[in-house]
Amino acid sequence: GQNIDQPTEMTATEGAIVQINCTYQTSGFNGLFWYQQHAGEAPTFLSYNVLDGLEEKGRFSSFLSRSKGYSYLLLKELQMKDSASYLCAKGHSGYALNFGKGTSLLVTP
Amino acid sequence: GAVVSQHPSWVICKSGTSVKIECRSLDFQATTMFWYRQFPKQSLMLMATSNEGSKATYEQGVEKDKFLINHASLTLSTLTVTSAHPEDSSFYICSATDRVRATNEKLFFGSGTQLSVL
């Protein structure tokens, strides 16, 4: 299997920083994706890493270490609307993605 | 970004009936479309890969005779859940690849279909 692991739930305070970790099996790797998903809605693309290092995009950043099979999503200046499920997904051949179970993030006042 | 339209958004049906879900790429040609299923608080699970003009490739454990996929054109793929039963109740979502558009957002998702089988 793809064994994509991420924490089930996290809670953070408005205005704070939170890091969501993801580990995956390194075989057949073709990019690492992060999505945001609200209940009953389609996932929204956040980031894509294929090379090692940090990709920054506004309040969201994503990091990848291919040798370690590790990625994280960093959310800064948390807002209440950031409460959602965050999905880590590994790309493999043919453009298909394998998703982790998602991390449910609750942002509190 | 590219737009993928999925219909219906939700459907309620009786056990034993068949339900068809459509997925259309509105502004690009999608040679490949993917169908996912998501149970509450679970991951999106890939069901099948649909290639235009050929038979779909199903993931292990997905019954091809129960989940019929048709990809007859470059902009339309359909998933038919045949003889639906309550255990088929789930969130079904399609996605498509725009191989021409060179962006990091490799997949474009439909809005999903919530199927409830009574």
Walk me through this protein's architecture.
The complex is a heterodimer of chains A (109) and B (118). In chain A, a hairpin with a 5-residue loop joins strand 8 and strand 9 (97-99). In chain A, strands 1, 3, 4, 8, 9 and 10 form a six-stranded mixed β-sheet that branches. Helix content of chain A is 0%, strand content 52%. By secondary structure, chain A is an all-beta fold. Chain B has no helices and eleven strands. In chain B, strand 5 and strand 6 (57-58) form a beta hairpin. The N and C termini of chain B lie far apart (36 Å). The mean pLDDT of chain B is 91. Classes of the chains: A mainly beta (109), B mainly beta (118).
Largest protein-protein interface: A-B, 22 and 23 residues
Termini of chain A, distance in Å? 39 Å
Shape of chain B: globular
Gyration radius of chain A (Cα, Å) is 13 Å
Number of helices of chain B: 0
Q: Nearest-angstrom radius of gyration of chain B?
A: 14 Å
